[in-house]
Batch of 3 targets.
Target 1
Amino acid sequence: MIWLLYIIADAIANWFIIERMHKRPDYLILFLIRGGAAILYGAIVLHTVPGQFLWWFITVTFSFAFPFNLLLNRMRGRALDYYGAESGIIDRWVVKHKLHGAYFITTIVMFVMAVIVRIIFWPGLW
């Protein structure tokens, strides 16, 4: 639940930067903030469930893209699988190679995998 709250906060921050400030987010800074948040989340969770580094890594890595894109695109009034000029490096590569659908489906599959890992290995940590 803590990680999901961070994803929501990250989407809101990106929406504010793009829609209210009319700027493109600085993705290097956001990447560092996301990494710090993932480490902080790991410190909280791994303290509770020691020896679960791999499952924490899968959870934070695989669970981010789908809900983040879904929330941000919804807040911006865009299509669920929208990737545009304000998007980051990976998203711009997806646009360039016309892989919108494949990337969107991949993020959904990764999210489902993260949820399954979470249910199996950390059932009490929601």
Note: Residues 2-121 form one domain.
Target 2
Amino acid sequence: MPENVYTRLRKHHAKKDVIELQTYFDTESTVLGFVHQVNDEFVSIIEVDEDGSYDGVIVFRWDTIFFIRSCNSELELITRLSLERGEVNSIKKLNITSFQNAIADINKTVGYVVLYLERLEKKYCYVAEVLEMGEFILLSEYTLLDEPMRSEILVRMSDVTRVGYGGKYEEDLLKQFQDK
């Protein structure tokens, strides 16, 4: 079978090695991590940073990937460091049959979700608790302006390009609310 994005993701899922990839929606940054799950439409990536530390989980449509980098000495070192830390070994599998199912599963499991809206001229990222979901998602967003505060935001489900949880930024943000 010829290599394509789907077969490559399945290969790296089986190998349990770190890859670097980029999507059409975010051409300014790359995703570094392990392929945690992959199906006919979606992929779940356990993100790690350059020293192999866990940095959250993201889910997105794999057909938005335009490159995958793998099999170089830097990525092999990150794989080894991350596996030695053991942080990525206990990450729960998600229902990634749709964005709606992934969002509901994440929100139920950790109490919040990170939603990315990248199809628009400006990119948006919300760390929020999901209040209602259908064609639109009603969120109770966590924000830091002068102080921690919450606000409700309504976004269209079809504008969501990625969902996630557990990253360092959002965990630090949530601590601000717990300390309040």
Note: The mean pLDDT is 92.
Target 3
Amino acid sequence: MKTFLVVETQDGGCDYTIGCGVRHYTMEAESYTALLEEVREVLRTYDEDHGLHSELAGSLGETHPEYLRSSVEVYEIASSHWVDLREFRQIVVDKRNADAAEKVEASERAELERLKAKYG
């Protein structure tokens, strides 16, 4: 069994929201050909569930083409790996803390030099 990522896009009709007009999901199939049959069924079912079945899709596509799917891409997933984002976040926090500590030390050293110059 192979795993595939299916990405559907819809041109137009977006409100500039990230991911607007994009729907993605994973599917498993024995082959790419078998996957295409399953994708066709998913698309047909989705269109029917959302009022885009054949008799409406024609008129809807003519009056509101932004509602129609413009492309479908399929990617075969060869491998996937879980990434622990806590480690990446901790690196950012540590760097931010180190930068803040350096800034405080530089300020304190400048104050020390000012006081040395003033009081000898």
Note: Strands lie at 2-9, 22-29, 71-77.
